[in-house]
Every structure is written in structure tokens, then in C-alpha cells.
Structure to design on (65 residues):
């Protein structure tokens, strides 16, 4: 399932959970294979925040036009 759009805390938390659940099923996050849950969670947080930042910046650009 793709990550949700948005930059609220709820959306970010749901995206982190989605990424970690996928890691539990497949053992992979994208092309990497975190060995421990701690590593997987740290990487999931980074991905979720990056995604939220991308959508937040995109929304700001649309407002300026």
C-alpha cells in the first residue's frame, strides 16, 4: 500500500507503521535490509518525514502560484 499524503503527526505515524509492518513481512525497506527492528524504525521515520516534507513543500508551491 502506498504511503499516505500529508504532514500531520497522525499521517506520519501511520506511514511509519506501514513501513515497519512491510519490513516485518518482507525483511526489506526499499532496497535496504535493516537487520534489527531499531534500524528499521529509524529508517522508517526518516522516510516518513521526508515524504511529509515533500508534500508540504508541494502544497506551498501551489499556493504561491
Amino acid at each position: 500500500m502506498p504511503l499516505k499524503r500529508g504532514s500531520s503527526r497522525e499521517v506520519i505515524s501511520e506511514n511509519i507503521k506501514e513501513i515497519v509492518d512491510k519490513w516485518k513481512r518482507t525483511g526489506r525497506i526499499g532496497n535496504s535490509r535493516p537487520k534489527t527492528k531499531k534500524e528499521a524504525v529509524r529508517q522508517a521515520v526518516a522516510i516518513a518525514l521526508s515524504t511529509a516534507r515533500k508534500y508540504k513543500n508541494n502544497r506551498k508551491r501551489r499556493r504561491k502560484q
